[in-house]
């Protein structure tokens, strides 16, 4: 525990920076690092809380003051403090980064009471895909997007810049993938039921059954554990999850960036899995297929980027379009195959294979849109470096 003298020393260091200023003002590097390492702390607390939260809700009846909620709230409190600091002083962010952080924090804070009201009115909120939950993810989405932009624009080149940027993208991937955990926990919960075991406490099962107007049977378990269509899991993973990896690869600008971001998130899920189960909480399927997806994205940048440039620049004609489509279909097929393989070996949510067409089309549109925006925002130098790595 720090002594009062340490707190006084820290206050004496920070106080001169507490001045009103506009976003984009020149920020001393020591202050810049403190602010963004503060964001690492905030997002780590939120990550730990959210990782525990899904498992908690598959075991216990909901409680507003459950430990996972308190841990997540601690991270939110740190994030709110950092948002106020950025907004008042203007340090560490440009206008775009500040607006993203402020809007994200604001949406999240509005979503919290709406979610509480939703639970009061509807009892159990059986799916993580509910409107109030989506608002929570959306707020965190904008918040982390602003943090990524702030760090990307202000951090000096070097290993630390790359590593921390990768860490922020791993937090970003966790946030967008978070709703998919409902199916990842749900599929193992149904498997446990089929093996004459349950992870959930009787009070939770009884509450869910009463809300559905059913006895505690398999139909109720499926409605509780997998309340969304089978096509949602793979389509969302391919379109949204891979979009994050594409942006990470573009902004980090190095081969292996997408793979390492995915591996960082999956590695965390792998470590937290036994820590939860040893304490009696339900297990989940871990999305190992995301590592395969990250590797495919990295490989695609080596062979496909010239095609993308040709499409965006309206040169190359039909050959460029066919090349882009071929690469996109290969990635989509690889991810679907990885999910199917994982389903047979390690467990994964059920998927509707017919949805692959829509997943591939969605990924193609999102990927081209991301690169078009990057090109319009002045990322030509970064893209040229990627193309150079692909050119013999």
TrEMBL record:
Transmembrane regions: 31-49, 69-89, 96-114, 134-155, 162-178, 231-248, 255-276, 288-307, 319-339, 351-370
Presence of keyword Membrane: yes
Keyword Cell division appears in the UniProt entry: no
UniProt keyword list: Membrane, Transmembrane, Transmembrane helix
Protein's UniProt name: DUF2029 domain-containing protein
Species: Nonomuraea helvata
Phylogenetic placement of the source organism: Bacteria, Bacillati, Actinomycetota, Actinomycetes, Streptosporangiales
């Amino acid at each position: 525990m720090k002594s009062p003298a340490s707190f006084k020393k820290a206050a004496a260091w920070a106080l001169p920076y507490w001045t009103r200023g506009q976003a984009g003002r020149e920020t001393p590097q020591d202050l810049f690092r403190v602010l963004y390492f503060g964001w690492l702390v905030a997002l780590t607390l939120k990550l730990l809380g959210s990782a525990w939260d899904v498992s908690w809700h598959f075991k216990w009846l909901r409680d507003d003051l459950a430990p996972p909620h308190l841990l997540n709230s601690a991270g939110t409190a740190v994030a709110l403090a950092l948002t106020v600091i950025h907004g008042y002083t203007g340090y560490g962010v440009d206008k775009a980064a500040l607006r993203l952080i402020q809007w994200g924090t604001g949406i999240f804070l509005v979503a919290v009471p709406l979610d509480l009201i939703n639970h009061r009115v509807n009892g159990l909120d059986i799916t993580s895909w509910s409107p109030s939950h989506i608002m929570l993810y959306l707020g965190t989405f904008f918040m982390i997007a602003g943090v990524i932009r702030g760090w990307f624009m202000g951090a000096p080149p070097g290993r630390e810049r790359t590593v921390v940027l990768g860490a922020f993208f791993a937090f970003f991937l966790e946030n967008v993938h978070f709703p998919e955990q409902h199916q990842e926990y749900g599929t193992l919960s149904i498997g446990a039921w089929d093996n004459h075991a349950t992870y959930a406490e009787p009070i939770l099962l009884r509450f869910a059954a009463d809300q559905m107007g059913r006895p505690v049977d398999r139909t109720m378990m499926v409605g509780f554990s997998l309340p969304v269509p089978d096509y949602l899991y793979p389509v969302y993973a391919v379109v949204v999850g891979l979009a994050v990896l594409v942006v990470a690869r573009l902004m980090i600008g190095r081969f292996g960036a997408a793979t390492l971001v995915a591996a960082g998130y999956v590695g965390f899920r792998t470590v937290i899995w036994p820590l939860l189960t040893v304490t009696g909480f339900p297990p989940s399927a871990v999305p190992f297929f995301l590592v395969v997806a990250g590797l495919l994205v990295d490989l695609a940048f080596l062979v496909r980027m010239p095609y993308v440039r040709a499409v965006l620049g309206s040169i190359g004609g039909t050959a460029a379009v066919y090349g882009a489509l071929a690469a996109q279909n290969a990635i989509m097929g690889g991810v679907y195959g990885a999910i199917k393989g994982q389903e047979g070996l390690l467990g994964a949510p059920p998927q509707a294979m017919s949805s692959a067409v829509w997943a591939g089309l969605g990924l193609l549109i999102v990927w081209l849109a991301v690169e078009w925006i990057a090109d319009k925002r002045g990322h030509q130098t970064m893209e040229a470096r990627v193309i150079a790595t692909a050119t013999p």
